[in-house]
Design a protein that fits this description.
The chain is an alpha+beta fold. The protein has a domain at about 230-425: Vanillyl-alcohol Oxidase, Chain A, domain 3 (3-Layer(aba) Sandwich). It has helices spanning about 5-15, 25-30, 75-80, 135-140, 160-165, 200-205, 240-250, 285-305, 305-315, 330-335, 355-365, 410-420, 435-440, 445-455, 465-470, and strands at about 55, 60, 65-70, 85-90, 105-110, 115-120, 125-130, 145, 180-185, 190-195, 215-225, 225, 230-240, 255-260, 265-275, 320-330, 340-350, 375-380, 395-405, 425. Helix 1 (about 5-15) runs parallel beside helix 8 (about 285-305), helix 1 packs across helix 9 (about 305-315) and helix 8 (about 285-305) runs antiparallel to helix 9 (about 305-315). It starts with a helix and ends in a 6-residue tail after the last helix.
Length: about 475
C-alpha cells in the first residue's frame, strides 16, 4: 500500500511530531515493551526421545513422541490400529487454537497430496487431504477447472481448511467445506471408511467440519467448476464511507471484504467480480505489504500515546483511492501467502447484527492505543454441516489480529464478550475460550456430533486438552 517507515518519518514520525507535548507522556509510552510474557524465538529443543512441533505463529507447541507421516491409507490405518495414546492430525499449522498439540502422536498428511482422479464433464476431483490450497488451485487451472471461492491464505491444506470451516469472502459464497461431496476417513479402530451423503448422511454432515475429532480424513472428493476470471479492486477510503456502503457492496459484488487500520479512520476495501474481460495483471510487491505493516507498527511504537498525531501522520502517508485494479485467474487473486506472522480471533456473527458490530469493534480497537494490526471483515453464506459456524444463516466475520510476539489478552477481554452477546460463533481454528456448554447452546446438532464422535472413538484417542474442553463436560461424557 506504499506506506513505509521511511515515508512516515518524512511525514513527521520523528521529533517534529511531538513539539508542544509534555515529555513525560512521550517518554512513558516509549519505554513500553509490547512483547508478550513467555514469548520465545527460537523455541528450546525437545527433550530426548521427543520431537518439537509448533504452529505457524508460535503460539501452540508440543513435544510428541512421534510425528508420523503416512504415505497410504493402509499405512495410517495399520499405525493407528497397532498403537495406543492420542493421535492428532496436522495440516499446515495455521490454526491458532490448540487443535494439534499432543504428547503422543501427531499425524502429518503432507505426503498424501495431489489430484488422484477427476471427471471433467461432472467437474469432480478427488484429492489427497494433505494437498495445499495453492497447489490444488494450480492443478485445477491446468484442467480448466477452479474452486468457486478460496480463503485468503493459500498454504493451508485441505484437511486443515475443511475441518476448521475455513472460508473466503462473499455473501452468496459458502465456506469451502461445502464443496466436499465425499471423503475417506481412518477411524480409531484402524478401519477405512468411504463416506458420502448417500452412504452415511450423518457422518457426512458431521465430517465436513470435524475438527479431526471423528478420525483422520485422508482424501476428499470435491465439486468444482469451470475456471473463471475475477476483476479485483483495492481502494483506500475513510472508514465512515466504508461502513455506509458495506452491506450494499456485500450484496452487489461476487466477493467483498475490507480491512480497518486501527487508530487511523481509514480502511482498505477489496472487491471481486466475475468477468470475461482479458487478463490485465498488476505487479504486487510483497515487500510493500511488509513495509506497510512495519510502518503501522512504528507509528504505534512512537506515537501511540498521542492518537490524534498518530492518525494525522498516517493519513498523510497513506495513498488514497484505487491502488490496485487487475483481472486474472480467480485463484491468483483470491489467496496469498501471509508474510507477517500474527495471532487471531475471528467470530462469525448473524448478519442482522452487522451494522452495530462493525462500529462497536472499531470503537473498541481505537480505544486501545497499542493495537496497530489491521482487522478483516468478511461475509459468508449459510451451509448445513453440523459444526459449521454458518449453518444458522448468513454471517459477518470479524477477525482481530495481534502481532505474533505481542500480548493478545485483549482479544478475550475487549472483544470476545461482545461477540458472545451477539450469539457469535468462533472460527474453529482461531482463538476463543468457548467450551461444551456454550457451544451446545450455539449449535443445534452439537449433541448429535458428540454422540457420533463417541461411537467412532469411545476411548477418545482423537481428543487432546483443547478438544476435551470442547466436547467433554458433565452432560456429554
Amino acid at each position: 500500500m506504499a506506506l513505509s517507515r521511511r515515508k512516515l518519518m518524512l511525514m513527521g514520525l520523528g521529533a517534529g511530531a511531538v513539539v508542544g507535548v509534555p515529555a513525560v507522556r512521550h517518554l512513558s509510552w516509549g519505554g513500553q515493551n509490547f512483547e508478550r510474557a513467555g514469548f520465545s524465538d527460537p523455541l528450546p529443543d525437545a527433550p530426548s526421545g521427543e520431537v518439537r512441533w509448533t504452529n505457524w505463529s508460535g503460539i501452540q507447541t508440543s513435544t510428541p513422541q512421534q510425528i508420523f507421516v503416512p504415505k497410504t491409507d493402509e499405512g495410517l490405518a495399520e499405525h493407528i490400529a497397532n498403537t495406543t495414546g492420542q493421535i492428532r492430525p496436522v495440516g499446515s499449522g495455521h490454526s491458532f487454537t490448540g487443535l494439534v498439540p499432543t504428547e503422543d502422536v501427531i499425524v502429518d498428511l503432507g505426503r498424501m497430496n495431489g489430484i488422484r482422479d477427476y471427471d471433467l464433464d461432472k467437474k469432480i476431483v478427488t484429492v489427497g487431504a494433505g494437498t495445499r490450497l495453492r497447489v490444488l488451485a494450480k492443478e485445477l487451472s491446468k484442467l480448466g477447472l477452479g474452486l468457486k471461492n478460496m480463503p485468503d491464505v493459500d498454504v493451508q491444506t485441505l484437511g486443515g481448511s475443511f475441518n476448521t470451516a475455513t472460508h473466503g469472502a462473499g455473501l452468496t459464497l459458502t465456506a469451502i467445506h461445502d464443496y466436499v461431496i465425499g471423503f475417506k476417513m481412518v477411524t480409531a479402530e484402524g478401519d477405512i471408511l468411504t463416506v458420502t451423503e448417500e452412504s452415511n448422511s450423518d457422518l457426512f454432515a458431521a465430517g465436513k467440519v470435524g475438527l479431526g475429532a471423528l478420525g483422520v480424513i485422508t482424501e476428499y472428493t470435491l465439486q468444482v467448476e469451470s475456471a473463471f476470471k475475477l476483476h479485483k479492486r483495492l481502494s483506500i477510503m475513510p472508514v465512515e464511507d466504508i461502513l455506509d456502503m458495506t452491506l450494499d457492496a456485500a450484496q452487489t459484488h461476487y466477493g467483498f471484504e475490507w480491512f480497518y487500520l486501527p487508530g487511523t479512520g481509514q480502511g482498505a476495501v477489496l472487491s471481486y467480480d466475475r468477468t470475461d474481460e482479458p487478463i490485465r495483471r498488476q505487479a504486487v510487491n510483497k515487500d510493500e505489504e511488509i513495509e506497510m505493516m512495519m510502518g503501522l507498527k512504528e507509528a504505534r511504537d512512537k506515537l501511540g500515546w498521542a492518537p490524534s498525531i498518530r492518525r494525522r501522520v498516517i493519513n498523510k502517508a497513506l495513498p488514497k483511492g484505487v491502488i490496485e485494479d487487475q483481472i486474472d485467474e480467480s485463484w491468483r487473486l483470491l489467496s496469498t501467502t501471509r508474510p507477517i506472522k500474527f495471532n487471531e480471533m475471528e467470530y462469525h456473527i448473524p448478519i442482522e447484527h452487522a451494522k452495530d458490530a462493525m462500529r462497536e469493534v472499531i470503537k473498541r480497537l481505537d480505544a486501545r492505543k497499542e493495537i496497530f494490526f489491521p482487522i478483516e471483515i468478511r461475509f459468508v453464506a449459510q451451509d448445513t454441516a453440523w459444526l459449521s459456524p454458518f449453518n444458522h444463516g448468513p454471517s459477518i466475520s470479524i477477525a482481530v489480529h495481534a502481532y505474533h510476539d505481542e500480548d493478545y489478552d485483549y482479544l478475550f477481554t475487549d472483544f470476545e464478550p461482545y461477540y458472545k452477546k451477539l450469539n457469535g460463533r468462533p472460527h474453529w481454528g482461531k482463538l476463543h475460550s468457548l467450551g461444551a456448554k456454550e457451544l451446545r447452546a450455539l449449535y443445534p446438532r452439537f449433541n448429535d456430533f458428540n454422540a457420533l464422535r463417541r461411537s467412532l472413538d469411545p476411548n477418545g484417542r482423537f481428543l487432546n486438552a483443547h478438544l476435551e474442553k470442547i466436547f467433554l463436560d458433565e452432560k456429554s461424557v
